[in-house]
Design brief:
Blueprint (H helix, E strand, L loop, with lengths): L2 H31 L4 H10 L5 H20 L5 E2 L3 H11 L2 H11 L20 H13 L12 H8 L8 E2 L14 E2 L37 E2 L2
Parallel strand pairs: 2-3
Antiparallel strand pairs: 1-4
Length: 226
Amino acid sequence: MGFYGIFFLLLLLASVYYLYSSKKRRQLEFIQSYRFYSTIGKKIQEKYPHLRNEDVTLVLSALKDYFYICNKAKRRMVSMPSQVVDVAWHEFILFTRPYQTFCDKALGRFLHHTPTEAMRTRTLAQDGIKRAWRLACAKDNISANAPIHLPLLFAIDAKLGIKDGFIYSLNCKDESSPLYGDGYCAGHIGCASGCAGDSGATSSSGGFFDSFGGDSSDCGGGCGGD
């Protein structure tokens, strides 16, 4: 292949990449600016009467976070780690046509709903939760392997006092924590190959998305996918 052939091939690849990047950017901007029906908020408050209007706003913001990370995960499974956000998602789906339109514009595909899913044990995370954790941490600019606080999707059930929610703590070994001995140890999710107990990890940033490869992850429920 001559010089001009290589030049036009590179130009073609650059154009394809630009179009793809522009499309992804528009999708993410659409998610962030989307306005949910007020009825969804009312349904959330029917389920959890103690929530104030500002709490419902936070729930809907977390739902946007979930759709955001589903976009980032492409077609790989992403577990829903929050009960209250799952309620919001379910209510949104009941608006069938708007939800279909939203999915087309935000994801380029229909995102099916399945129930929420937590870690299998306090220290054992399955692939869907790991993916949700790492992408949620990336969105909130948190180190997935050494977090200093929880991303919203993992913090919201505890923050809003959701009685049937999934409660995560950063360090299950911290006896001074009000969550000591309760809930799930979020610090273990970011570990590349198992943890002895601390929130820290030894994996390098190059392995940040190591578990994202392939679509063969076993997702027993609580995942957004086809």
